[in-house]
Design a protein that fits this description.
- A hairpin with a 5-residue loop joins strand 5 and strand 6.
- The protein is of the alpha+beta class.
- Strands 17, 18, 19, 20, 24, 25 and 26 form a 7-stranded antiparallel sheet that branches. It has a 4-stranded parallel sheet with strand order 7-8-9-10, with helices on both faces. Strands 22-21-23 form a 3-stranded antiparallel sheet.
- It is 16% helix and 21% strand.
Length: 636
């Protein structure tokens, strides 16, 4: 769990981030909050706050070893681990205070999979114990539509590499089949990589110190688990926190992928609380005061979310690119894991992979550039991506979402792709996990907040808002632009819950003097029916949706228009939608814009990593002339 009221996460100023004024930089998504504690623990199913007691029984009936004050409630033994990890992923980057996460615009879907219980041990003595539901947590994350799952936990007793058959390994396999990237902490006891990070489908992340060497608190760097501080030793550490796990030998199937900082890592922490002082983790550890909600922790639990957050950044640039493997064998295509490995610090060393350091430290800028590519010898700043069109047969709710994982998750709630073959997505004929219909898109949106030219309209984020019934089932999906509209939807009756950003559109300027919508775009509407359900569709589909009853302005929206999105179509049939060609500067009516004998869709594949510059050939004059973009802004 997390501290729901922590200022680095709150998406609204109201209680528990569900009402009040919208905070654009707040990335905790209440709609996806799941608490897996059983009903007997008497914790709300959507309350993911770390600071929750678990009910054990009537007062004076629970073993004193579990319940010292005999009130029947078991108190958490430490607070802040989940808050610290979540801050490393996505602490608010817009508030100018505290800390910023690596992916400052990533939405956080929190699944609380740990609670406390009083159970008998093998000696029939009652003891206070953590109860874990990691595998169910992974499954619920998949069902929520997560693109990346961070697992800052595990055990060396879990064997996913050598066919251990653990249920946690099965859950990880389901995530990989669903093209959800799983990032796992390698472990902190200087031995072989723990499970589930030792699964071949998981990005295993080890820890390094500030000098860039493998994190080691023992007396030997080469002998596993040798000389580690023992409990009661001079440092007060136990052997489980003696340094990073790693691959023990070159042929070890428990392969280290990447490494990031592990000791003295600063992030958000549960305000005024410590997780474990002896393990140097708490609000009282590190910079600031003991009640400012910022402090240090150590361990590969801190290393993994740094990589998970970077994966979130690159997946947001192009949500269609598969996770893949670090170094694929043809005909397998390179994916996210290859991008992270091939741009890491050891990319130019021989050998590239090391038993302790894996492929090295990730390079965020290189990974982002590797996902965006170049056009006309300049870095690409944005990409067009499909807005998946879905409909639920029962109830008729229409939904529009920007990631295949969320589209697949909605399939489990009765939604299916909406539209005929004319809405097919070029070069993306099917979802990663089959049996969910053929993907359809009415429009294409932009994936980053950066304009490609200074002369175009500013970009606005599309915010997904979801209304649920009394049983938690979705009633209506709506996309809105503008903070005031998000706030108004959240204050509607019944309220809409905030579910994160779904790409970007050009700001609506319809009716304004000199309004010039970008070439290839059309207005994107949000209109509702008499039953209070809303649909998002382009102006070209107005007659169809009006016929279905979507003609009304939402009472909590200031306009019918969301902004300008790119129209569907691939007029030259090169596999690159017209939307992508407009953004790249290639010609939507020329298969090979720069005349180098390679189709635009081959040089810059729509659903894969880019291959080469589509505007560097002898006929590059056919490409749109771009305005030069510099680090400090635009200049022609």
């Amino acid at each position: 769990g997390i501290e729901r009221e922590h200022p680095e996460f709150k998406s609204f100023s109201g209680d528990k981030s569900i009402s009040g004024s919208f905070i654009p930089g707040g990335n905790y998504l209440p709609y996806f909050a799941v608490n897996l504690a059983p009903a007997s623990a008497q914790q709300a199913a959507d309350d993911v706050d770390e600071d929750q007691n678990s009910y054990a029984g009537p007062p004076n009936t629970v073993a004193i070893t579990c319940d010292p004050n005999q009130d029947g409630w078991l108190e958490p033994s430490g607070l802040g681990h989940g808050t610290h990890v979540s801050g490393l992923v996505s602490a608010n980057g817009k508030d100018g205070t505290g800390v910023s996460g690596v992916c400052r615009d990533c939405g956080i879907a929190v699944v609380k999979a740990i609670w406390h219980a009083c159970v008998q041990n093998v000696h029939l003595q009652y003891e206070y114990r953590l109860q874990l539901e990691y595998e169910e947590g992974i499954r619920r994350s998949i069902e929520a539509g997560a693109q990346v799952i961070n697992l800052s936990g595990g055990s060396t007793d879990i064997d996913c590499a050598y066919g251990g058959g653990d249920s946690l390994c099965d859950a990880v396999a389901l995530a990989v089949e669903s093209d959800v990237l799983v990032v796992g902490a390698s472990g902190n006891d200087r031995t072989h990589i723990q499970g589930p990070a030792n699964d071949a489908g998981v990005v295993a992340v080890g820890g390094i110190n500030q000098a860039g060497s493998i994190w080691n608190m023992g007396t030997s760097i080469n002998v596993p688990n040798y000389g580690c501080p023992l409990n009661g030793g001079a440092t007060g550490d136990d052997h489980q926190e003696c340094g990073s796990n790693f691959s023990l030998y070159v042929g070890d199937l428990t392969r280290q992928d990447l490494v990031t900082l592990a000791p003295s890592v600063v992030s958000s922490l549960y305000t005024g609380k410590n997780w474990n002082v002896s393990l140097a983790c708490g609000d009282s550890i590190g910079p600031g005061t003991s009640s400012d909600g910022v402090g240090e922790c150590r361990g590969t639990s801190m290393s993994a979310p740094q990589v998970a957050a970077l994966a979130g950044i690159v997946r947001s640039i192009n949500p269609l690119v598969r996770i893949g493997t670090p170094y694929p064998t043809p005909p397998e295509l390179p994916g996210i894991r290859h991008l992270l490995a091939s741009t890491a610090s050891r990319a130019n060393t021989v050998p590239q992979w090391d038993e302790k350091l894996g492929y090295g430290e990730p390079d965020a800028e290189a990974a982002v550039r590797g996902m965006l590519g170049t056009s006309n010898e300049e870095p690409v700043r944005n990409r067009a991506t499909p807005l998946f069109s879905l409909i639920r047969s029962k109830g008729g709710d229409c939904a529009a979402v920007a990631t295949p994982q969320l589209a697949m998750a909605l399939h489990g709630k009765g939604y299916s792709p909406d539209g005929g073959p004319e809405l097919a997505i070029p070069s993306y004929p099917g979802f990663p996990h089959g049996g969910k219909g053929q993907p359809r898109a009415r429009v294409y949106v932009l994936s980053t907040e950066h304009r490609t030219m200074a002369s175009t309209l500013p970009l606005e984020p599309l915010y997904l808002m979801v209304k649920r019934d009394a049983n938690g089932n979705p009633l209506d999906h709506a996309l809105v632009t503008g903070s005031l509209n998000v706030q108004a939807a959240a204050n509607a009756n019944p309220p809409y819950l905030y579910a994160g950003r779904q790409g970007y559109v050009y700001r609506d300027c319809a009716g304004q003097p000199g309004c010039a919508p970008p070439v290839g775009t059309e207005l994107l509407h949000l209109k509702c029916n008499l039953q209070g359900r809303c649909a998002v569709f382009p102006a070209s589909d107005s007659d169809y949706f009006h016929g279905l009853g979507y003609q009304l302005q939402a009472p909590w929206m200031s306009s019918l228009n969301l902004g300008y999105a790119y129209a569907r179509g691939d007029q030259d049939g090169d596999g690159l939608p017209d939307a992508a060609e407009y953004v790249l500067g290639t010609r939507p009516d020329l298969i090979d814009t720069d005349g180098d004998t390679y189709d635009d869709g081959i040089e810059y594949p729509f659903a894969e990593l880019w291959v080469s510059d589509p505007c560097d050939g002898d006929e590059r004059q056919h490409c749109a002339l771009s305005e030069h973009v510099f680090a400090n802004g635009f200049d022609q």
